Amino acid sequence: MRELKFSESVRSLEPFFRPRSVAIIGASPKQKKVGYVIAKNFAKSFKGKFFMVNPTAQEIFGHRSYPSIKSVPEEVDLAVIAVPAPVVPEVLEECGEKGAKAAIVISGGFKEVGGDGAKLEEELAGVARRYGIRLMGPNCMGVFDSDSMVDTLFIPRYRLKRPPKGGISFISQSGASGIAFLDWAAGERIGISKFASYGNAADVSEADLLEFLAADEETRVIAMYLEGIKDGRKFVKVVGQASRVKPVLVLKAGSTISGARAALSHTGALAGSDEVFDAVVKQTGMIRVYDWEEMFDFARVLAYQPAAKGDRVAVVTNGGGAGVMIADEIEKLGLRLAELGERTHAELKAKFPSHVVVNNPVDLTGDADNERYSVAIKAVLADEGVDSLLLVCIPHTPAVDLESFVDVVMDSWSKWGKPLVVCLPGGRVSLELREIFEDRGVPTYPTPRRAARSLYALAKYGKSKS
Amino acid sequence: MRELKFSESVRSLEPFFRPRSVAIIGASPKQKKVGYVIAKNFAKSFKGKFFMVNPTAQEIFGHRSYPSIKSVPEEVDLAVIAVPAPVVPEVLEECGEKGAKAAIVISGGFKEVGGDGAKLEEELAGVARRYGIRLMGPNCMGVFDSDSMVDTLFIPRYRLKRPPKGGISFISQSGASGIAFLDWAAGERIGISKFASYGNAADVSEADLLEFLAADEETRVIAMYLEGIKDGRKFVKVVGQASRVKPVLVLKAGSTISGARAALSHTGALAGSDEVFDAVVKQTGMIRVYDWEEMFDFARVLAYQPAAKGDRVAVVTNGGGAGVMIADEIEKLGLRLAELGERTHAELKAKFPSHVVVNNPVDLTGDADNERYSVAIKAVLADEGVDSLLLVCIPHTPAVDLESFVDVVMDSWSKWGKPLVVCLPGGRVSLELREIFEDRGVPTYPTPRRAARSLYALAKYGKSKS
Questions:
Q1: CA distances from B364 to A381, B220, B289, B361, B397 (A)
Q2: B293 CB near a chain A CB, below 8 Å?
Q3: Given CB atoms, is A398 within the 8 Å cutoff of chain B?
Q4: Domains contained in chain B, CATH given
Q5: What count of CB pairs under 8 Å joins A to B?
Q6: Are B253 and B227 within 8 A, CB to CB?
Q7: Cβ neighbours of residue B28 under 8 Å, at least 6 residues apart?
Q8: How do residues B408-452 score in pLDDT, each as one tens digit?
Q9: pLDDT digits (tens, 9 = 90+) for A340-358
Q10: Which of A82, A172, B126, B153 is most exposed, with the fewest beta carbons within 10 Å of its own?
């Protein structure tokens, strides 16, 4: 990994994700309250110390409650604030006096409601500056960290499952988009490292978070949902640096006139010109996606597979139709079907029955068994003209031995260090195989197009790194 | 429905899907044999009469076996033939003498292997012509009909689930693509009427099947996977007629140079110029898709929802980010965000708290409950400037009452006769709601883009019908 020249301010974001101690201000014993769900989250799973703060409660599910953060008997790194907007500046003042380093303001009722709310937000930002507290929010979902288990998401777990630990970190300007993404990841057992929904961005912005995640060792892929950008110059600089050390995926909504108008009434974001944004994408090496599905598809492959050293893809399939569709897609994406070397060609010709198509796509045909797959995988990966492998299996054909298929593929593939993605179309049987592959770090896709596109992401990232 | 001017030959395809009696020639008592699986399928679920034909067996799972079709004591409409290629012409000859009306030749070893195989296929086609037997195949998966339960798919059901009854019929030039599609439909409980994989098309072609399905009352949507077209002139004529009475979706692979080359080694199809095909699509009113996922997405919405009368889409959401993405997508697809009428605007303003965004997208915001959804749905559907509704729900927000959500939506929507699609992103909770909607005929999608694209299919079909 190249050396990073990030600003000192990166360190100041650590307490959001790895605080030693947290005060939950507005913790509540009453179900349905935001402060109840957050307090429960910390009580259930946070790995550090936490303190409930609520002046009208003696205790909250057996944990002592303090009347204010100032009465907490130990140091506090992070304050999570979920009290009505008008008292938030005053509460943050107390956090400052206490020496807290960071605060997440969940409460809404600030700039997003206009007028007095905007003034209140200015006041809030002023307090933060005065005390040197980093401030996330207001009007946000805050943070989920799968390691420290900071979890300020005020949606109970029976509604919103938390995903397992993994290498994808996600920043979202939209709270709802953020939680939908997390729940989806949980459902598909995709590992997440850190999540941050930063709301009105009174202090901490998308660029700050990006900078932090670029330097974060647990984060292998950064995924962002954006509508507008707060400080364009800073964003461009930080994204350019981040993209040199790890893949940065961006879903930038508001790319049309209708979308930009909708963004303005949603987060008040000025979406800006989409041409300009595209130029930034090109210049910085970000990878732009246009849908949550694509963000997931790309994030998975980039988190688990090595970058492709080039754009020459080998395809091995037992279904000719899928091979044709992949060939189409590869050409459309500007990738290439690898030209198999003479030795590879001769070897496959010698080992396979005459009805097997020894071109690329290698069509093993419908009677292909696991052994035929193994021979083909090894031969094409040994070929120096091949940069990556797209494997297709229609697992319904009886010759495929389902019991050992994943093992056979993994064994044939593992030593070559070239990226692999698998396309497994169909219902139950396909889904079962897909889960086993995913658990072993091989991304799988139900359609030829999505599989081919994911290889495109790997090739694109490989190119921007080189 | 407009009157159809289809050729008389349509009737001649009936015995493939609705035979009164079937002879399974090559039925086998030995597991792993193709003739075993097919015989099992008929024994288990076929609604008409069937006869096992195998000269070396006395009985096959308790069913009497006849030495040849000629010894079957009753009339035979359809012969299913799964015997080695060299004896197929002779067997078909016997079918002719017996008076069978149609035959499906599952066996491979014909034109696809070249040389002698091609000659054998010519011979076979000659026999069929001589006796006036309609011939499907050779080298095909044959037919699945969810009503009569003709099922010649030689993949056992523990590997390949059969989908439930429904309105989508599917023709596939590729056998593997066909079974992947069926299994996927089964997994997602999507209803299929008829399926045909026609292999080498020695007699029955994609155009014949298309014509048949266009006239078939149980088929509401026709979906096709094609690599090449046998008789371009006939195809164009039939597709044009079919598209006037029901939606025809086409996934045409081999659209690039690489893909066309792969198609040639797969089915021997000459993919032809993609520009020409696009012109045909435009001229005939077919809807072209580029991926299996899209084919499914479109087929579901076209099978269950009325065509949109225009391109003006209303969006109701509790997540602003999804609204922004949908607004983008709608503009990119050439649809329009409906402009809400003054009355609608005033009504929503009066009934909703001030933080609700009363534009289109209507952003009910994260605290929206079922009642707020109900009011919004009724108001926008009553608006004459609205042709269709795209409803988004982030179901994780606690204000949504999951128990009654689907009922509330269905009640608010049902009387207006305008198409509805629902976007429900996320994991478990979303999937559960999606299933309930789907069972009630409302297509659902996990992402804004896929939901918006499905409405595009409805609008496009509505336009081509008008």
A1: 53, 35, 33, 9, 12
A2: yes
A3: yes
A4: 8-301 (3.40.50.261), 306-465 (3.40.50.261)
A5: 259
A6: yes
A7: B34, B35, B36, B39, B54, B57, B60
A8: 999 999 999 999 999 999 999 999 999 999 999 999 999 999 999
A9: 999 999 999 999 998 898 9
A10: B126
